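Here is the promised in-class demo. Please do not try to memorize the tokens; focus on the logic of going from shape to residues.
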């Protein structure tokens, strides 16, 4: 017997067997798994069928999205159409307003022209009336006879009458303007009123009232400062101021303006004395 036969070995026990068994088990498990997988291989066709069944669900979701998109597109189209209609309505309203304004301007201009024409016609009628009355007066009595009956006194005016005469003569050459009250344009009654106002006497504004503002005097007994009138007392259509020496000053018409003329130039109908 060897002298080492009873000595225990210090080498660790081999563990190869368990590892081999483990490996064998693992390998077996793998092979079993593969075998099972292989055996289950023909049955793998089921998932494909399952995916095919789920397709309608995807298609349904897509249809919903498409429908929503179509609805949104339709809403946008409706909004655009409504905006276009509103823009068209605004454009139509603007055109109508512009046309109405142009029509209003045209009517205003036409009215203004009509008023101007009416005023011109009235002035022409007034001048024609004066001419007719003067013609009638001349025809009935004769201008020569009427002129002969006027006073031709050459006596100088004094006091307030002299101031009235001086004022009237100072305006000779000024323009005649209907409704004019000076200082450089007058109508007949405006001139007479201003002349007497210069000496502190307030007369009515119009010829009709001025023809009755004082004491009626005969045309054969005139004094400087007397108011001459044409037409009837209270309905006179023209007035002037007697300045002496058979002369008068008056704002006659737009053609002559303010003039000094002999009484025979335009024989008056009567006279009143205020001073």
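The designed amino acids, position by position:
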């Amino acid at each position: 017997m060897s002298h080492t036969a009873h000595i225990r070995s210090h080498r660790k026990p081999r563990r190869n067997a368990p590892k081999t068994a483990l490996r064998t088990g693992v390998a077996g498990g793998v092979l079993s798994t593969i075998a099972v997988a292989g055996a289950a291989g023909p049955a793998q066709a089921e998932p494909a069928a399952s995916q095919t069944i789920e397709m309608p669900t995807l298609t349904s979701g897509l249809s919903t999205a498409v429908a929503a998109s179509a609805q949104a597109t339709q809403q946008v189209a409706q909004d655009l159409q409504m905006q276009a209609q509103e823009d068209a309505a605004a454009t139509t309203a603007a055109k109508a307003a512009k046309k109405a304004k142009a029509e209003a301007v045209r009517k205003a201009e036409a009215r203004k022209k009509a008023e101007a024409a009416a005023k011109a016609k009235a002035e022409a009628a007034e001048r024609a009336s004066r001419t007719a009355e003067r013609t009638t007066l001349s025809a009935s009595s004769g201008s020569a006879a009427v002129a002969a009956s006027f006073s031709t006194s050459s006596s100088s005016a004094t006091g307030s009458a002299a101031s009235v005469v001086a004022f009237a003569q100072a305006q000779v050459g000024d323009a005649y303007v209907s409704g004019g009250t000076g200082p450089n344009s007058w109508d007949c009654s405006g001139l007479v009123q201003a002349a007497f106002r210069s000496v502190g006497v307030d007369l009515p504004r119009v010829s009709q009232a001025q023809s009755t503002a004082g004491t009626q005097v005969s045309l054969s007994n005139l004094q400087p400062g007397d108011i001459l009138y044409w037409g009837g007392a209270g309905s006179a259509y023209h007035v002037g101021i007697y300045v002496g020496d058979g002369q008068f000053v008056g704002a006659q018409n737009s053609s002559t303006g303010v003039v000094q003329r002999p009484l025979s130039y335009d024989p008056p109908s009567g006279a009143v004395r205020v001073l």
